[in-house]
Amino acid sequence: MFLWQYLTLLLLLTVQIRKAQGCDEFTDLNLSHAIIGTSLKTRLLLYTRDTVSCGTLISHTNMSTHPQFNFSRPTTFVIHGYRPTGSPPNWLQKITELLLARKDVNLIVVDWNYGAANVNYFKAVENTQKAADNLTAFILKMQEHGASLSSIHMVGVSLGAHVSGFVGAKLNGSLGRITALDPAGPQFTGTPPEDRLDPSDAQFVDVLHTDIDALGFREPLGHIDFYANGGTDQPGCPKTILSGGAYFKCDHQRSVLLFLDSVNQTCVSKAFPCSSYQEFLNGNCLNCDRFGAAGCPVFGYDVTDWRDVLLKLGQTKTYFTTNAVSPFCMTNYRMNVMIWNRDVRWGYITVKLHSKGKEAVATINHKAVEFKKYTETKLLAQFDKDLESVEKVSLKFSTGNVFKPKYKLRVLRLRLTHLEGTKRPLCRYDILLEENKEVTFRPLLCEESNF
User: Last residue of some domain: 294, 320, 346?
Assistant: First the structure.
């Protein structure tokens, strides 16, 4: 009890200190506001490296009263989405801190909670255009003070992604960049480009999809579209409605968490161009030649390193997979297997890499794989972590057939190729895999003459 009282006191002191400093807070509403319905009110909270935890409410008309707003610096806008309960997004402080840590910018949190907090979703959708009008007028004022439109980056979440698009369209696509985090699908799917986000809304538009079968938008909307885990059913998210509210929002909200990992440079998620997620999982889309020497683009904040080549390619649709928790990045290997069984074998493979007491695991089970005699089978092995060096490899073959006889897979040769670095491929020859029994061995550096 004493600890709880101490923490409560500390929280109250923090709030009082922030008020004494003149800090402005994001509007905190509740469910009653959403039930009654809220009218749009757009508030702009400015944060800088000198005031990372203390927002300043900016005047829409008299910017000279805010000397901390440096118009020669780039400006990043963060725009939230639908708020059905009226509460502030729980990621706001984190995204503010991380974006300012990465780059010295004017960071503006766009607080349109009055307008987004409404149990009537259709009303919130209506307000996206009005919020965009307000932001457009503000940005034109910024331009009058010397700000460059090409140095503006908008990060929009859900409905906020379309707000960003509307602003960009009103400014004739002159904004530098729009990052859209799982753009909202309901009421926008099937609409023409002028009624939603599209690639012409900024000089560069990058989009992440995490909930295309429910709250998100299914089709590509940017110069590059990333589909994490195929754009649906994010790892670690509830699978049934029995989990309550998390069942509805977890996949959608995962987009923000993935982006935060990329800003923080927690790890790197390389994304691969492909026609479908299934083809990607099948290992048929691991060629990155179209992107030149830089290879396949990485998801998130640093994708601008591929901007020039992506603009030339038009629209690029890419896929990557993630872990259930941060660090979300997985490590990709191409796995080539040749067997010498007389009969065809069907089954699943689990691979483990071992190094200095650590273990990385890849389970290839999205479908049963066909193995034929003297025919090389190409697989994509996605490991939950990256190991600096690989001392041992473990393999397990399974068929999933409980009542049928146990089979053996006679591997003539195995080759593991790291897809995200310059590491030499690892090989092994003549391995006997008995079903459901793990076999561990030391890999060899591949001799190219053997392949």
Answer: 320
